[in-house]
Design brief:
The chain has a single domain, classed as Rossmann fold, CATH 3.40.50. The protein starts with a strand and ends in a 5-residue tail after the last strand. It has 204 residues and is an alpha/beta fold. The protein contains 5 helices and 9 strands; from the N terminus they run βββαβββαααβαββ. The protein is 25% helix and 28% strand.
């Protein structure tokens, strides 16, 4: 699978966040979108996963069978971000069941998925009562354990303690080969040292 961008740019009002981004992202590779706060890392990810339209340039999704329409790309990807919304009125088990009603699981049964998130003790707890760290682990777990060809992580260890950061890397190490992984971060500890770095601040 490929995501191809040519002369991509985004501006808000009169201010260019970035422009002239030309790049091909491919399956089997991990990419680290780096740069200081406010440089456009999250904005680029949101364009790449189809949430925001670019101001200029082209964006195409393709695989061996040909082009993938932008309105269908959601079925190929999973996302975990600190600003991602969860359904507050659901319990953890209800949230997991709801998510995997739409996504195929690579984590087994609902209870096995919750165990892999190390959140078994909170299975019946309302999401509204989750700590920020538990919320982040849930978001990451849903992404890690979904059968998706593309994974997007934006500042993935936000709100995680030391033990949960180790859990993040354990889950990362068990991902199947051949995925496309894109991580937006300004911390080297959040992405593997084999990742291809793209400094978005150079595209001003």
């Amino acid at each position: 699978m490929k995501i191809t961008v040519e002369n991509l740019g985004k501006r808000f009002n009169r201010e260019w966040i970035f422009k002239n981004v030309t790049r091909t992202f491919e399956s089997g590779h991990t990419y680290a979108i780096v740069g200081p706060n406010g440089s456009g890392k999250s904005t680029l990810l949101q364009i790449l996963w189809g949430q925001l339209p670019p101001s200029i340039g082209t964006l195409t999704y393709s695989q061996d069978q040909g082009l993938i329409p932008v309105e269908e790309i959601f079925s190929y990807l999973s996302i975990a971000t600190p600003y991602q919304e969860l359904i507050e009125e659901f319990t953890l088990e209800e949230m997991v069941r709801f998510h995997f009603h739409f996504k195929k699981s690579r984590g087994g049964s609902i209870q096995e998925i919750i165990e892999k998130m190390e959140l078994t003790h909170a299975s019946g707890k309302l999401i509204s009562n989750f700590s920020s760290g538990m919320r982040q682990r849930l978001k990451l777990g849903l992404a890690f354990l979904s059968e998706s060809a593309i994974l997007f992580f934006d500042e993935p260890t936000t709100n995680l303690d030391k033990k949960s950061i180790q859990w993040y890397w354990d889950q990362f190490s068990h991902l199947p080969p051949g995925l496309m992984i894109l991580i937006a971060s300004n911390q080297e500890a959040e992405y593997p040292n084999t990742a291809q770095k793209i400094d978005i601040s150079t595209y001003r």
